[in-house]
Amino acid sequence: MSDPETGRAPHVPVLLGPLLQAVAPVAGTWLDGTFGAGGYARGLLEAGADKVIGVDRDPLAIEMAQPWASDYGDRLQIVQANFANLDEVATGLDGVVLDLGVSSMQLDLAERGFSFMRDGPLDMRMSQDGPSAADFVNEMSEEDLADILYLYGEERASRRIAKAIARERAEGPIATTGQLATIVESCLPRARPGQSHPATRSFQGLRIAVNDEYGALAEGLMAAERALKPGGALAVVTFHSIEDRMVKRFFQMRTGGTGRANRYAPEAEEEVAAFTQKTRKGIGADEAELSVNPRSRSARLRVGFRTKSPAEEIDRAAMGMPGASKAGKTSKGRKGRRG
Which spans does this entry mark as compositional bias, Basic residues (predicted)? Predict the structure, then answer.
């Protein structure tokens, strides 16, 4: 998958080279928890994996893989599922790869309702079931909608935008991406050349809420810990600061660190290391990749290797998940919000 709101550029696996280098030698059975267009799965198979299990909650991803998946025979297995439950798909894995965000094929289809760049129904559901973005926008309270835009989209004008949405929906349902983008634009200054579209943060926050992406990430990291065998690799590619913070703190807690959210928090008991890391720094794209794939500019790769220590549950708030605790939501979602 790839960075949200990137336009019509074809899918290119971001940081695939650095990922393969970080986990080399590639062998055994791997699970690609965000299968998408299959770029990472194919890269792993061509690098030496005996088998790759591709997991995606979007039925379209499964359908689009059918013309080429048979080229790999029984080395490639594709399963429709949420990577939050990946340990229910397979265990004893040699590696797990997660490439977070929304796929370019989802953005390019107006009828999926992910992008403000092309008008379509306000949907945004990766699994194509459950409440849609239109349901959230038209039925959620103004206060809760503002919290979503702020906590998940990091939109500082969230109150102003939520108020405008409430005012507009009182006149009639907000049904399309174009309608919502116009409302958001009316609340913010016009973007200067080189700046992102004014609706970027709001669409990101709404999409993340509709698909419970942060909840899935928290559960998926813990599921990967349960599914990996000793020595197995967990590689995660993120595209924005909140996701990267969650992955970074997960590894901090599970490599024997305290995982404290801030220096004022009470000292936590030292955790038994469930992972080791060759480097704690996130890996970014080099100039060569940036020149051919601009989407990689915000991408960060973090990799850990499983030890023999038992898997454990982790507190979502300590992992840095927005809104995971009422206290965190109050202090950040209300007192700190402008607009």
Answer: 329-339
